[in-house]
Design goal:
two-stranded antiparallel ribbon, alpha+beta, 52% helix, 124 residues
Amino acid sequence: MSNETMNPIIDDEEFAAAQKAAEESDYIYTHKFKKPFEYQGKTYNELTFDWGKLTGKDGLAIENELQQLGKPVIVPQFSGEYLVRLAARACTVPIGSDAFETMKLADYNKIRSAARSFLLKSEL
């Protein structure tokens, strides 16, 4: 056997692209509803959240919004109010943070947990 068949040549660009795609997938979460979710006259079978598109400006805006409501944020990872607003901003379709209040608790918890996981991973 030749050396090439034993050790296939790896295209460095292809490997780098695959590695980048794998890393970026950590920033995407798609939530599939067991039963379609209705909000403001629209029906959703799933929602996709792109955590990677969020910026520091989003975090500050959420904190400011909650402060104006008299709800200070001490630890964002454990604030349901902060996490649902983060999820609303990360959602790939326009949806208000109030939508999460009308979801089934199981769906709300999974989305909130995905937001929390993103925040915890981003601090490593």
